[in-house]
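Students often ask why we bother predicting the structure of a whole assembly rather than each chain alone. The short answer is interfaces. A chain on its own may look different once its partners are present, and contacts between molecules only exist in the joint model. In this exercise we take two input lines together and write out one structure for the complete complex. Read the inputs first and try to guess which parts will touch.
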Amino acid sequence: MGTYVRLTVAAEAYAVPVSNVLAIVGPGDLTAVPGALPEILGVRRLRGQIVPIIDLALVLGLNATVPQRQLLLAEADGVKAGFTIEEVSSVDELDGQLEAAESDFLLGVMVRDGEPFGIIDVARIIGSLRRAGS
Amino acid sequence: MTDPDTELWEAFHEDVTHRLDEMEAALLAIEAGDPGTAMIDSLFRNVHTIKGTAGMVSMGDVAAVAHAVEDVLAIVRDTGTFPPGLVDPLLHATGAVRGRVNGGDMPVDALLAELADALTALRQAGSGAGDAWAQTPEPGSEGTQVPRSQQSPEDWVSRGVLEVPARAVPKQGRELPGGPVAPRPIPEQRSVRVDPVKLDNLLDVIGEAVQDGRRLAHALGPEAELPKALSAALGAGVRTLEQLRDSAVRMRTLPLAVIAGPLPRAVRDFARAAGKDVTFTVVGADTELDRVVLESLAEPLTHLLRNAVAHGIEAPADRERLGKPARGHIELRAVPRGNLVEIVVADDGRGVLPEVADLAGREGSLADVLAHAGYSTAGEVTHLAGRGVGLDAVKSYAHSLGGALEIRSQPGHGMEVTLLLPVALAMMDVLLFERGEAVFGVPLAVVDEVIQVSQLATLSGRLSLTVRGRPLPAADVAVLLGGHAPPLSRRPRALIVAVLGRRIAVLCDALVGQEEVMVKSLGPLLAGAGYLGAAVLGDGRIALLAEPAALVRGRPDTPAQSGLDRPPDPPRILVAEDSFTVRELQRIILQTAGYRVVTARDGTEALRIITGDADIALVVTDLEMPGLDGLELTRAIRADPARAALPVVIVTSRGSEEDQRRGVEAGADAYMTKHNFDQHALLATVERLIGR
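Now the answer. The structure tokens for the assembled complex follow.
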């Protein structure tokens, strides 16, 4: 199936195709953007660009009780965005069966060692925010 | 981009346009009384080359017309006389060829007949010979036998690729048609082709280096406390970086001359139609401006010139009665002013009415008074100036680029309309201010003044600030931008912002100061949030740069709701266009008019967006795009039952009836051409189709 970055968001297990991932960075200082969608926590400087930071837990409809300690810098359709995550657990080759997911923002669900985890659809999230925000 | 046919076409278009500019300049100079043989030689040389290159791109009709013009000019050259009646048929020919290479139709037969008549008249005047019709040119007869143009492939420009002059372009200040002038020499354009995206990346990195330099200086503490050698080295380093940045910014700029070519001809035609006698001069044609600014400037500039002719300059008899020279004068002037350029259209006509000058004295600025749609100094609306004078549109155009419009006029003594535009869109003079924990900025050009607020009142429940005895609506900037912030400081500052004909006092906690910043895009996810972009400050903080229109438009003070299921408000328009410049221009026009805009770089991306977004209310598409083109996109939309009724507007450089017919057959609702692109017509069409 390919290589995935496995991570946790609000204590749940997820994975992102490595092809979408540019970097994992610390949280850094965010500048809030008044008037932006609530899913967009703010912007920060990353590699010479200003990048919007997205509250991944809110997008996935989760209630984050633990502070999200890392940022996953991802790209889809030429648009870069940072996603708040709890932490990265590993980078793995995964070849399990992809089951259909309930959420619009997941490519599907895989089961590994008896534990399910969702494959995040970065392009879908960015596309949806792009339409809602324009 | 690498299609050789496209490159050939672009090269042809560039070359012919340039030669037509030169020919029209020469014809206007001759009309103004310059009988020099240099003019005639230049005309002859240019038309000969046009004839040859037209054959290369299979434009037999252009070659035929050029051939006929060449025949006429050959006699002029041999006899050494240029009868005054010859200017008109030759200008008709150059105008028609220009229209043709811009994608329009050309009345070939009528032109050939007119030129043949001119030829007959010339021959009869010269020798009295009766064989005038013996050598009537045959269309396309010689089109392919003429040598190729002198351009080398490096000179070829393709759409979407910036030309960076490898050598300075000669200065091109010109005066037309008042005195003896040489037609503009074709500047040597040895250039390298650079993808604009690469230039933007370079600018980004250099901008970062400049910020790093400033941060280092900031971190080291006050300059006075540093060892001398360190302070000197630091200063030199920062300066070098700033020079580097300025050079990179200049790579995106081109001289005003690039668009000024057709203007003398346009002014002449306006004057003819209005029965006026006008000379026109261009000063500062070598002044450079951002390419995006430059390309969007042609339309407002033409509009201002048309206004000056139709509404400013008096009829010759009236001028003489007033003790003025019968011939009026209009000057187009470009003057660099820091990181702004002043584009001035000045006329020596009637100026504004005394009542208007008085009103402007009371209301604040002449620009504000005149920008109220429909006002005209001529007291009536003529067919030439169109309905309303449209200064409001020119003003919002300037504001959309972070610039401003200023007008000076004395009744009876002419008018000066000044557009202040940024040299480079990447750099902007902004006023920085604080609200809560955050720093914001607005373009300096829209801020009239900054006031220390001692007292705020409410009027009909809304905040109001009295400035010099007059009440102004006031609002907390945090509310205007749609955010939350702690209560305003006890003595807030008010920025008096004037935009879109409205003035508002924008309240903030404290002023940070004025700074020239590099504007960075916030990206598509924040495209509708009301910002021009952001700037990174010396201390590393990010300042959000508020869009002036968003400030005066304000926002209802409602709590934010989830964006993913937010109901749509203003209609959303998809712009599909492969040229960055055209795409940005259309985006700015539509956004300025209040629409939300999504963009796509080709038909495939457009179709993907349309399929995934049921909210798209209208599609504006180019015809020629890589991959899926505009016709295929239109057909695909019509073939989808869910979207078969989605309005489609085709905006293209191809304007022949055949193209239009194909567009309509594919299912397009409207068809507009780029070469006479009119933003009002686009907005009117969009409004009609969306039904707002």
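Check your guess against this: The interface with chain B takes residues 31-40, 43-45, 48-52, 54, 59, 79-81, 126-134 of chain A (CB under 8 Å).
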